[in-house]
Specification:
A hairpin with a 2-residue loop joins strand 4 and strand 5. This protein has 155 residues and is α+β, with helices and mostly antiparallel strands. The model has no long low-confidence stretch (mean pLDDT 91). Helix content is 25%, strand content 42%. Helix 1 packs across helix 2.
């Protein structure tokens, strides 16, 4: 697949490029295996009950979970718009957060195969200013969790 052209990032979007020290099939599995998704999704202070995770890897399918912390439970509900195994995931998502509700945010994730490493390009938005930085920080902490799982031999 040739690289998709991601939308231009604006002050209302989160745009992250990150390299993981694992082949693309491993990184893809972190996004599509409910047990693995529950282990890494959300900031460090947030957990995900594996029983809440639903991944239906087809257009129109769900990619959903419940995040939880000491203050409560925060549902994330997502519908997959497009999915190409090991290459691309696009969803429309809504979420309840401690700062309020988020509606109709688009998440686009590209997986770039570099042999023993994978470069991930993620674009998500639009957000209001109050959610953009919170979301970006949450993704960065989530990706730290993936790095730790990979370093620990999780595949």
């Amino acid at each position: 697949m040739s690289d998709r052209v991601m939308p231009e990032a604006t002050e209302r979007d989160v745009y992250i490029t990150r390299t993981f020290q694992a082949p693309v099939a491993v990184v893809w599995k972190f996004w599509t295996d409910p047990a693995l998704l529950a282990r890494w999704f959300g900031p460090h202070a947030v957990g995900v009950d594996e029983a809440s995770v639903v991944v239906e890897p087809v257009p129109g399918g769900a990619w959903s979970l419940d995040m939880k912390d000491d203050a409560g439970v925060y549902p994330l509900r997502t519908t997959i718009v497009e999915i190409v195994e090991h290459e691309y995931l696009e969803c429309i998502m809504s979420a309840q957060t401690s700062a309020g509700d988020i509606e109709n945010v688009i998440l686009r994730v590209q997986f770039h195969d570099h042999g023993q490493t994978t470069r991930l390009t993620m674009h998500q938005g639009p957000f209001g200013e109050e959610f953009r930085e919170q979301t970006r920080a949450g993704w960065l902490e989530s990706f730290e969790k993936i790095d730790a799982l990979i370093a620990g031999g999780e595949k």
